[in-house]
Design a protein that fits this description.
2 copies of one chain form a homodimer. Chain A has about 325 residues and is an all-alpha fold. Chain A is built from 15 helices and 2 strands. In chain A, β1 and β2 form a beta hairpin. The first copy, chain A, is globular, with a radius of gyration of 20 Å.
């Protein structure tokens, strides 16, 4: 990642944190505190950055008016995480106990529902043309429904009696992760007054970037040293999760069932990785992510050349080079 | 209720059912089916009726353009019921198994989340001025957050170690039930192009009507013969729920703790009712509901005199005369 983009992301994250702190910092009442808990626990704030960069690419100076909209996308992301953590039974996230663990399940359902509402309220606070704001709301609404479908598919994969195909995984990742990046980019374009070609290009950029992001997440889970990723290495393998890696391994005739054990040793994990690398599974999966990144970058070509377009280009490259 | 209003409500319910059936009737996939389940299980469709009558009172003919918005309010109501049923652990509603029982809890969380998204999508489909649509979205969003707060307060009452006061109950009912009726009426007014005075009056109408509705629900639970209400008579009393009846009884020095038993006989229940009636509890609670109805009716006076304003007037009267 370029130093310029790194600076930009840090500055944007600070602005997002500032607005969130102003709004949720002295949250009053247990429900509001539960809503704020994960939102204030940090995060890279990548979706707000994508929204602001997209707006700026379409119309320089427009992003100043769109901080509320940018924060709305972070709220949407956080609400889905709170509900997902209940469904997946996860106890920690970002180094803190999840909402349903720190409070309880009913409070966590409601805390997510409150953020869901706040996201739509914040979108309406964007300083933009009325018609554009209506379009932004409609796109956010359609996106939320898609994210739910993606999460439902992801859960269904785990109990499916049939073999999941690679294209199904990519469809799921598109809904679960791609759709919100697509909406972030497109809503930035819409609110900045972009034309249909620009908005569609930004949507395609975000969708492909998001899918690449999700694939990279799976690679990180397998390959990244835990001190770098902050995650429990190989958890997907141990749980037998239907990732693109597992699906590609099966297609190449590898049997990963032997590694589906909670007491897997680091040595066994290394052997699994070696096996996956030798069979070309890791390379094949990386190639798919790279292809998505190339598509995302190509989509940007309809936008005027500018620093922010260059940042969007750098950012999607970072999506598949990161190890955290 | 006048025959005219009865006809109107029936016709509106048919139109709502028709639109829901067109949209959700051949739902594809388990998640969409789970979202449609409770929505297609019937219901009085009172919130859509309030929205359409309010619009029509402000500008004759406007309601034709607002069916999507009317249905959005029904979706919002249904999403809150699906999530509430999970939190309250209820197994049946409208004579059918609840979503988390028929499917499972993760699916029910997502099914509610999908309807939540669809509600906002449908509001944007209203045929109305852009600025009005943005305002309608903002009001729906604020309302959803309020409903969550109301549900959270309601749950907190049950585990509170201190005594709940009457005004706290009314505040809770205002958020949990009043806010969505208030939003239904006000959004109808906003989308029909009403001025600020009209929209505020409609909001006050809906808020007071909704609180009266909730109080009547509690009276029905205690007093209505089950063959009429379709409910399990006296369930609030047996569970020791903090209703306005229980709070008022306590304030009048009555001890209801002896009736907090799941094996309460019909005779014991009759004795409890007699005790509550003799002590003036039932009358006192009714009086509060009637006062809310009077406030709701007074609010309507700023609207032009017309059939639809008369219907709104009749409707709130029905809210506290109904036994189902």
């Amino acid at each position: 990642m370029s130093e310029d983009l790194k600076d930009y992301l840090e500055r944007t994250a600070e602005q997002v944190d500032l607005m969130l702190d102003r709004y949720f910092g002295d949250a009053f009442g247990e429900l509001f505190k539960a809503s704020a808990h994960l939102l204030l626990a940090g995060g890279k704030r990548l979706r707000p950055a994508v929204l602001l960069l997209s707006a700026e690419s379409v119309r320089p100076g427009s992003s100043d008016d769109l901080m509320h909209a940018a924060v709305a996308l972070e709220m949407t992301h956080t609400f889905t995480l709170i509900h997902d953590d209940i469904m997946d039974g996860d106890a920690t996230r970002r180094g803190a106990p999840t909402v349903h663990v720190k409070w309880d399940e009913p409070t966590a359902i409601l805390a997510g529902d409150v953020l869901y509402a706040k996201a739509f309220e914040f979108i309406t606070h964007a300083i933009a043309d009325d018609r554009a704001r209506v379009k932004a709301v409609a796109m956010l609404a359609r996106t939320c429904a898609e994210i739910c479908e993606g999460q439902h598919q992801d859960m269904a994969f785990e109990t499916a009696e049939r073999e999941i195909e690679g294209f199904e995984y990519i469809e799921m990742a598109g809904k679960k992760t791609g759709a919100l990046y697509a909406a972030s980019a497109a809503i930035g374009g819409i609110l900045a007054g972009g034309n249909a070609v620009q908005v569609d290009a930004l949507y395609q950029y975000g969708m492909n970037a998001g899918i690449a992001f999700q694939i990279q997440d799976d690679l990180i889970d397998l390959l990244a040293p835990p001190e770098k990723s902050g995650k429990d290495r190989g958890s997907d393998l141990r749980e037998g999760k239907q990732t693109l890696i597992a699906i590609t391994a099966r297609e190449k005739g590898l049997d990963l069932a032997q590694y589906r054990r909670s007491d897997l040793t680091p040595e066994e994990l290394d052997r699994a990785i070696a096996e996956l690398e030798e069979a070309g599974v890791v390379d094949a999966v990386r190639e798919i992510a790279e292809e998505k990144v190339a598509t995302a970058r190509r989509a940007l070509s309809v936008l005027p050349e500018c620093t922010e377009r260059q940042h969007l280009d750098d950012l999607v490259e970072f999506f598949i080079s990161r190890s955290f």
